[in-house]
Design goal:
By secondary structure, the protein is mostly helical. It is 74% helix and 0% strand. Helix 7 packs antiparallel against helix 8, helix 14 packs parallel to helix 16 and helix 18 runs antiparallel to helix 19. The longest helix is centred in the first third of the chain and has 46 residues. The chain is flat and about 100 Å long. GO terms for molecular function: actin filament binding; cadherin binding. This is Alpha-catulin. Belongs to the vinculin/alpha-catenin family.
């Protein structure tokens, strides 16, 4: 808000507004003040007009009074901002009072007879009060926004401390405890940064924030499996390398978030994107077309130098080993045509200047048109080459044969084959990295350029991580956790390929003029149907659900009897919840909201767990039995609420969104109880074992199942419900558990 919307003065407060919430808060105030100031000089002072002016002035004064009360409360709670915030609140209150006095014109007699200054007689005083009010209110809002930034920094610092603790753990028990804390801190950080991302005004910052948050989300699961692999195989060098890469990437992403919210870089220098060919062409055309208005606004040498810089960037296309001979020749030819047309333009331009012409001549106008057309033809060809290359690569990698071969070779313990396929994956990585770089050149908007850069970095990092995970599996081919770890990194690669397909569509949409701006969300949930706020809400819930499934898996790791009935039921419940999480990312088997609701309806495994618990506690002591039954009742309530919600018919976008939200919330409730019950039941079993009692022993619990055994048929997908499929989600649940030593 650099200037006043009215013509009387500049309301610049000297503070940069970074967020939409601050800007939206100021808009009504600006509107009301503009109404007061921008009256006609010879406005007819009727009773109706005077009452309207007084009403607006009073509304401003009352609103400012309420606003100041909140600001003063914030100042009282934040000692480091107390003085600055207090001064801004004082100035806002004073300005609000001045505006109320100047607009106190309830009657014609009062307006003209008492000699007081009013909005009609003291326009300068009104403008001065308006400036002070906008300046002080803006300052209060910006200071309040600083508190939000401090919260994000504080949350990041907590995550960093826990991250360092996780990196140093040496026992699995310690890891489970710290990772649970880490999960909670990551959820808090995700909430704060998600809100900030949606609130940022700058599209580039929103895109960068989306990229950093996507890295953190994916790396959370990688950190879990990579750390467990290191704990299981502490002397394995490839496992250590794999783990260190994950921790390093998380730290860089956390640092990037702070750079965005504080608008600074750790090194102090400003962050600037490399200039893309699209941006270079756009700027070049602006300068060339600007010659119509002024022949002397830019030098001939500057235009020529800019063209050569642009031509140099096309070498990324022509020097590529993956560009065909025909494509290379076409690009070179178009570059030559552009040079020729620009040279002709400069000649006609200099001739016009020599004639002291005040505007472009007809000959120069023709050269401007030809130059702009030639550079547009070049851009079109570069777009065709980059998009065509990306489309071919996506088709080539759609079967994921190299990833499958790495998994198979690692599982066979064949290090030589892993090395061979690693070389192939490296080639694919280089192709994808270069393709992302070319897409960045022609993407069309800065947010899309940022997304291309993020994709390039992701392929560059994940490629070597897949290889190190495959080497670890080859060294320990019977290790379930090493296999799971490789699966997680392969999934990240596949997920990034899906992101490239979405990115391609967005780039084509921009090129063809079908859309105006990038959504800045790398992964959205039903993006065509949900607005930004709904997408953020669902994404947050999905992350919370994912972290709860990790907590369940970590707790199950501690059980000695991995075939225990409670373990098996909790595995399946966790797997179902994980499929919901994948739905929030637009992945997995659940493709529509109907799929999600169908899954929510089928809760027999949860009810089986309830029946199992009720039957199993009969022989427990009163205190233990009451505790288990109390939690079982909570579990039952959550299951029933989920079923009722899933079966309730709804219509309309808003109602469907609320149903999705409720389904995931209720599933979170179920997992929360499961996470709480698992360690309690585990301790009771160990206690019973030590006392040589059959009460709640593994054998006793298996005999008391009440027909709740999960059949092999169900797990293989032949059961009646939609969750028995041995899908990616099921593998995620069943492979998460650290193999027993």
């Amino acid at each position: 808000m650099a200037s006043s919307p009215c013509g009387d003065g500049n309301f610049d407060c000297g503070l940069q507004i970074q967020t939409r919430s601050v800007e939206q808060t100021l808009i009504p105030l600006v509107s009301q003040i503009t109404t007061l100031i921008n009256h006609k000089d010879k406005l007819k002072k009727t009773e109706k007009t005077l009452r309207a002016v007084q009403r607006v002035g009073q509304a401003v004064s009352v609103a400012v009074g309420r606003f100041v009360v909140v600001g003063e409360a914030i100042a009282a709670e934040n000692e480091d901002l107390k003085d600055e915030m207090g001064l801004a609140c004082f100035e806002a209150r004073r300005a609000g009072t001045a505006i109320a006095q100047l607009t106190d014109v309830s009657s014609l007699e009062q307006c003209e007879g008492d000699g007081r200054s009013t909005v009609f007689s003291d326009r300068t005083g009104m403008v001065k009060a308006a400036r002070m009010l906008l300046s002080s209110v803006t300052k209060v809002l910006v200071l309040a926004d600083c508190i939000v930034i401090k919260q994000i920094i504080s949350s990041r610092n907590k995550v960093l401390v826990t991250l360092e603790q996780l990196e140093r753990v040496s026992t699995f028990q310690e890891f489970v405890q710290i990772f649970s804390q880490f999960g909670n801190e990551m959820v808090e950080f995700a909430h704060l940064t998600g809100d900030r991302q949606n609130d940022l005004k700058d599209e580039k910052k929103r895109a960068r924030m989306a990229a950093a948050r996507a890295v953190l989300e994916k790396c959370t699961m990688m950190l879990l499996t990579a750390s467990k692999t290191c704990l299981r195989h502490p002397d394995c060098e490839s496992a250590r390398i794999n783990k260190e890469a994950v921790f390093q990437r998380m730290r860089l992403a956390l640092e990037q978030v702070i750079e965005i919210v504080t608008d600074t870089r750790s090194g102090g220098e400003a962050r600037a994107l490399p200039v893309s060919i699209y941006a270079g062409i756009k700027d070049f055309k602006v300068k060339v077309e600007g010659l119509r208005d002024s022949l002397y606004c830019v030098s001939c040498e500057a235009v020529a130098a800019q063209l050569e810089a642009l031509m140099e960037k096309t070498e990324d296309f022509t020097d590529s080993a993956y560009t065909s001979h025909e494509q290379r020749e076409t690009i070179i030819q178009l570059c030559q045509i552009t040079r020729q047309e620009t040279k002709q333009l400069i000649n006609t331009w200099r001739h016009a200047q020599s004639l002291k012409a005040k505007e472009a001549t007809d000959e120069m106008e023709l050269s401007i048109l030809k130059t702009c057309q030639s550079v547009s033809d070049l851009r079109r060809e570069l777009h065709r080459v980059a998009v065509g290359r990306a489309t071919e690569l996506l088709k080539l990698h759609s079967d994921h044969l190299v990833l499958q071969a790495l998994k198979a070779s690692g599982g066979d313990g064949n290090l030589e084959a892993v090395a061979d396929y690693a070389g192939t994956l490296n080639e694919h990585k280089e192709q994808l990295v270069e393709t992302c770089r070319l897409l960045c050149h022609i993407s069309g908007t800065e947010p899309l350029e940022i997304t291309c850069i993020h994709a390039e970095e992701t392929f560059r990092v994940i490629g070597p991580q897949i290889i190190s995970a495959a080497q670890t599996l080859a060294l320990h081919p019977t290790s379930k956790i090493a296999k799971e770890n490789l699966d997680v990194f392969c999934e990240a690669w596949e997920s990034q390929l899906c992101d490239i397909a979405i990115l391609l569509k967005e780039i084509n949409d921009v090129f063809e003029g079908r859309r105006g701006k990038h959504s800045a969300n790398l992964k959205t949930v039903k993006a065509a149907k949900l607005d930004a706020e709904e997408q953020t809400t669902i994404a947050k819930l999905g992350l919370e659900l994912c972290l709860l499934t990790s907590d369940v898996d970590s707790e199950v790791e501690r059980w000695d009897e991995q075939d225990h009935e409670m373990v098996r039921l909790c595995q399946i419940i966790s797997s179902m919840a994980y499929s919901m999480y994948l739905f929030t990312r637009g992945e997995g088997l659940l493709k529509t909201t109907l799929d999600l609701f169908h899954q929510a309806e089928v809760r027999q495994h949860s009810f089986s767990l309830i029946g199992f618990l009720i039957e199993s506690v009969r022989s427990l002591l009163d205190e233990d039995r009451i505790l288990i039954l109390s939690e079982t009742e909570k579990l039952s309530d959550a299951c029933q609420q989920l079923q009722v919600c899933a079966k309730t018919p709804v219509q309309g976008k808003s109602a469907i969104f609320q149903k999705v939200d409720s389904s995931i919330q209720n599933t979170k409730g179920i997992l929360t109880v499961v996470v709480y019950l698992l360690p309690i039941c585990y301790k009771l079993i160990r206690k019973c074992k030590s006392e040589c009692s059959c009460v709640a022993s593994p054998q006793h619990w298996r005999e008391k199942q009440l027909n709740t055994t999960v059949s092999e048929e169900t797990l293989n997908g032949n059961g009646s419900n939609g969750f028995g499929v041995k899908s990616l989600e099921q593998h995620m649940a069943s492979l998460t558990f650290l193999e027993s030593k």
